[in-house]
C-alpha cells in the first residue's frame, strides 16, 4: 500500500512540475495533507473512545448507557460536541486571558504530534524517527505544562491546586516510563518504533516483549495509566476534592479542547503499548496469515495482496490498541481513586526502583550475550 502511495506521490510531483509548480510547494502541500489526515483521524477516534467508555461503564454498572441518539447511541458524542460549540465561551475577569486560551492548545498539540511515530504497518508511518519511542515521552511531557498554565490562568484556587498536581504526577511517572522504554530498546537494539516491532515479529507470538519483559510491561502499563490521568490516577481533576481541577473555569470549545486532549492521550498511549510490548502490526493468528497468503496466490497482480496485507496490519494494530483501552476503562470502574501521597509513593518508591532494576538486569543480560 505504501509503495503505491509513493508511486502516486511521484506521479503528482511530475504533474506539478509539468504545470509549473515548484517541488518545494508540492512537498509543503503533501505535509499539509498528511497533517490534516492525522488530525481528522485523531478527532474521529475521540468520539469513539467517549462512546466506548460510556457503553463499557454502563455494562459494568448494569445500566443501558446512551441509546436514543442514533443506533446504540453512537451519535451521542457528536451531540455533545455540538453542544460544546454552541455554549458561551467565558473567560474569568481576573484571570490571564492569553494564558487561559493557550493552556488547552498546549494540552492538545503535543498529543497530536506523538502520533507521527506510530506505525500501523512497516510502511504506514508518517515519520520513522530513530528516536521515535523516546520522542513520545519527550513530547508528552509538555502536556502537564499546559495543565499548569490553565490552572494558573484561571485565577481559581481549585484550578491552582489541579495544575501542580498534574505536574507532580507527570514527573513521578515519566521516569519509570522512560526506563521501561530504554529496556525495550536494549532488547531491540533501536529506539525506532518500526525496528522494535520487527524485532518482536521474528519469533512470532512468543517473541513479544511481555514474555521477555514481564516486569517492565506491568510498570509501563501502570505508568501509562498515570500519564493519561486515568482512574485511579486522575488526581489533577478529582471531582470530590478539586471540582474538576484545572477545568473548573473552562466552558465551551476550550473545555472541549481539554476533553479532546484527555481522551486522545489514551488513544496515543495504547498504540505505544501495542508497539513496544504486543508486537505492533505482527499477527500470530494463523487464520489471518493464511488468509493473506491464499489471497496473494490467487491474484495475478501484487496490488490486491499488498492492500490486503496492509489492511490486516492496520486491523491488528487497532485491535490490540482498543484491547488496552478496554482494560483501562474497566480499571476506571473497578479501582477506587488513590490519595496524592499514595500516588507519589507508588511512583517514586515502587515503580522507579522496579523500572531501574529491570533496566539494569536487561543491560547486564545484553552484555553477557555480547561477551
Automatic annotation (TrEMBL):
Enzyme class of the recorded protein, top EC level: translocase
UniProt keyword terms in alphabetical order: Chloroplast, Membrane, NAD, NADP, Plastid, Plastoquinone, Quinone, Thylakoid, Translocase, Transmembrane, Transmembrane helix
Cell compartment(s), UniProt: Cell membrane; Membrane; Plastid, Chloroplast thylakoid membrane
Catalytic activities: a plastoquinone + NADH + (n+1) H(+)(in) = a plastoquinol + NAD(+) + n H(+)(out); a plastoquinone + NADPH + (n+1) H(+)(in) = a plastoquinol + NADP(+) + n H(+)(out)
Enzyme Commission numbers on file: 7.1.1.-
An example molecular function term from Gene Ontology annotations: oxidoreductase activity, acting on NAD(P)H, quinone or similar compound as acceptor
Keyword Repressor: no
Family designation: Belongs to the complex I subunit 1 family.
Subunit: NDH is composed of at least 16 different subunits, 5 of which are encoded in the nucleus.
Name of this chain's protein: NAD(P)H-quinone oxidoreductase subunit 1, chloroplastic
Organism in which the protein naturally occurs: Diplazium dilatatum (Lady fern)
Amino acid at each position: 500500500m505504501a509503495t503505491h502511495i509513493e508511486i502516486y506521490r511521484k506521479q503528482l510531483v511530475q504533474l506539478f512540475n509539468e504545470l509549473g509548480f515548484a517541488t518545494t510547494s508540492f512537498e509543503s502541500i503533501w505535509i499539509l495533507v498528511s497533517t490534516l489526515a492525522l488530525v481528522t483521524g485523531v478527532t474521529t477516534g475521540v468520539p469513539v473512545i467517549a462512546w466506548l467508555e460510556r457503553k463499557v461503564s454502563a455494562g459494568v454498572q448494569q445500566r443501558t448507557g446512551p441509546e436514543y441518539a442514533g443506533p446504540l447511541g453512537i451519535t451521542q458524542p457528536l451531540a455533545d460536541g455540538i453542544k460544546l460549540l454552541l455554549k458561551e465561551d467565558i473567560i474569568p475577569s481576573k484571570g490571564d486571558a492569553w494564558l487561559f486560551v493557550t493552556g488547552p492548545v498546549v494540552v492538545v498539540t503535543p498529543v497530536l504530534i506523538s502520533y507521527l511515530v506510530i506505525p500501523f504497518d512497516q510502511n504506514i508511518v508518517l515519520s520513522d524517527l530513530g528516536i521515535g519511542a523516546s520522542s513520545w515521552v519527550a513530547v508528552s511531557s509538555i502536556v502537564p505544562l499546559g495543565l499548569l498554565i490553565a490552572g494558573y490562568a484561571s485565577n481559581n484556587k481549585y484550578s491552582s491546586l489541579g495544575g501542580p498536581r498534574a505536574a507532580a504526577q507527570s514527573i513521578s511517572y515519566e521516569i519509570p516510563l522512560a526506563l521501561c522504554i530504554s529496556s525495550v530498546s536494549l532488547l531491540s537494539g533501536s529506539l525506532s518504533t518500526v525496528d522494535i516491532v520487527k524485532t518482536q515479529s521474528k519469533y512470532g507470538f512468543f517473541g513479544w516483549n511481555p514474555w521477555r519483559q514481564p516486569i517492565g510491561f506491568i510498570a509501563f502499563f501502570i505508568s501509562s495509566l498515570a500519564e493519561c490521568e486515568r482512574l485511579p490516577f486522575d488526581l489533577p481533576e478529582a471531582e470530590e476534592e478539586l471540582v474538576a481541577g484545572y477545568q473548573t473555569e473552562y466552558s465551551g470549545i476550550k473545555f472541549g479542547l481539554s476533553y479532546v486532549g484527555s481522551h486522545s492521550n489514551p488513544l496515543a498511549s495504547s498504540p505505544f503499548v501495542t508497539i513496544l510490548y504486543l508486537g505492533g502490526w505482527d499477527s500470530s493468528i494463523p487464520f489471518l496469515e493464511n488468509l493473506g497468503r491464499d489471497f496473494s496466490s490467487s491474484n495475478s497482480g501484487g496490488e490486491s495482496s499488498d492492500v490486503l496485507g496492509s489492511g490486516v496490519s492496520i486491523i491488528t494494530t487497532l485491535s490490540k490498541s482498543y484491547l488496552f483501552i478496554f482494560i483501562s476503562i474497566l480499571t476506571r470502574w473497578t479501582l477506587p481513586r488513590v490519595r496524592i501521597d499514595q500516588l507519589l509513593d507508588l511512583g517514586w518508591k515502587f515503580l522507579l526502583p522496579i523500572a531501574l532494576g529491570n533496566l539494569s538486569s536487561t543491560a547486564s543480560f545484553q552484555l553477557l550475550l555480547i561477551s
